[in-house]
Design goal:
By secondary structure, the protein is of the alpha+beta class. It contains eight helices and 13 strands.
Length: 423
């Protein structure tokens, strides 16, 4: 397997290479656009020159040698005919000359009228239907008398369309870049998951091995005891029971997580009193505590919701147990239900919170937040994963955030559809 530094180097090198190729492609598109634009402008200039010659030839007048074509902007030209001309003849010549150079461009023209001192709109020439002319887009030239203005409203689009192959190549490069980034992201996710699974196996081995060793030692001592040593026998029996119970809890957690990941419906919603359930969880937690802790409840008298009582009991137990395990003494946990548009359950501890960059991952399978208590408190990193899975299977939402001067807060939002009533 590649080392982390080697992998990071290859990822960075590949990313730089693709970005470099993409930048080159953008530069090529820019150059190609400029070249095509210049080619279009030259063809337009030649067409307008030919139209001038034909008008003067029709009028039997001599064409001036001065520059009669003025480029006002990229899409607008003024042509000084310097002689009387008819708009129908102008349109005929324009159409023929554009066809000759095979320049398929939308254009519209207007002719200056001396009597009204206004630009009189001529026509919009296009191969498409339902086009929108711009009759007010033509500006006068105070220094000219016999002239017309011509606009190319879709010139930039036509130029861009003429280099469509460059755009296709750029699109392919963007797709390659996206696939590359997504592949690297997936690879890093798998790498992180592999690391978490390794930690999980190590933790599971330790968690299973410790109670099993205790059970074996206790049972061996019991076998060697005499009849009169009943008091010690009872202590060893109690130890075996406790360790067996601990093993059973570990197995149950793993089975619950495995079951929650299966596609079949494991949630059976029924009307239940959420307040009563929270009180039960508090009683069970307090009875098993081996250190001082304060759990304050700010709850309504009664709150009936549609939920799976068994699984939501485990959710509340996990959240409170998590706070009590990782918060230093004196421990204080607040459980509050806020009733607004929908019930919101808040569980807040008085710890130091966790690093902000850890918050997006605390619900991930096998993930354990690294702090000074991680080494002393063993676990599989499945508790919060199970919590989020069950909450989502209910159709509810859960999120975690650091609270200023309070610690970490879990917020569970219960939708209106599962809210029956409250007292």
């Amino acid at each position: 397997m590649l080392k982390v530094k080697q992998l990071n180097f290859l990822v960075a090198l590949g990313f730089i290479a693709i970005i470099g190729v993409f930048v080159m492609q953008v530069s090529l598109i820019k150059d190609a656009f400029a070249f095509e634009k210049k080619d279009f402008e030259q063809k337009i200039y030649f067409v307008l020159e030919d139209v001038l010659q034909k008008i003067h030839k029709t009028n039997n007048t001599e064409q001036p040698y001065t520059n009669q074509i003025q480029k006002v902007s990229d899409d607008y030209y003024i042509v000084n005919v310097n002689d009387v001309f008819d708009n129908q003849i102008l349109e005929y010549y324009l159409t023929n000359e554009f066809e000759k150079v095979k320049l398929d461009l939308d254009y519209e023209y207007a002719i200056y009228d001396c009597s009204s001192d206004q630009m009189v709109y001529g026509n919009y020439i296009s191969s498409k239907k339902n086009v929108k002319p711009c009759k007010d887009c033509f500006q006068k030239d105070e220094n000219l008398i016999y002239y017309f203005g011509i606009r190319f409203p879709k010139l930039k689009w036509s130029v861009a369309n003429s280099i469509h192959y460059y755009w296709i190549f750029a699109g392919i490069l963007l797709l390659v870049l996206f696939i590359y980034v997504y592949s690297i992201y997936t690879l890093l996710q798998y790498q992180r998951l592999a690391s978490l699974q390794k930690d999980f196996v190590n933790n599971m081995t330790h968690e299973f091995k410790t109670p099993l060793t205790s059970i074996l030692i206790a049972s061996k001592q019991m076998e060697q005891m005499k009849e009169e040593q009943k008091e010690k026998n009872q202590k060893y029996a109690q130890l075996i029971h406790q360790q067996a119970q601990k093993l059973n809890e570990h197995v149950e957690m793993i089975l619950q997580v495995a079951q929650s990941e299966q596609q079949r419906k494991i949630i059976q919603k029924k009307p239940m009193d959420l307040v009563q359930l929270i009180h039960h969880v508090k009683e069970d937690i307090v009875s098993s505590l081996q250190k001082k802790a304060e759990i304050n409840l700010q709850l309504p008298t009664k709150l009936m919701v549609q939920a799976d009582e068994f699984h939501f009991y485990n959710v509340m137990y996990n959240l409170l147990d998590n706070a009590l395990k990782y918060v230093a003494e004196p421990i204080k946990v607040e459980v509050e239900i806020v009733l607004k548009n929908h019930p919101t359950l808040l569980i807040t501890d008085n710890g130091n919170g966790i690093e902000e960059n850890e918050i997006p991952y605390i619900f991930d399978k096998f993930h354990r937040v690294q702090n000074e208590k991680t080494e002393t408190i063993k676990g599989f990193g499945l508790g919060l994963f199970y919590v989020k899975k069950i909450v989502e299977l209910h159709g509810w939402k859960i999120k975690a955030k650091n609270q200023a001067n309070k610690g970490l807060q879990f917020e569970i939002t219960i939708p209106k559809k599962d809210w029956i009533h409250h007292d």
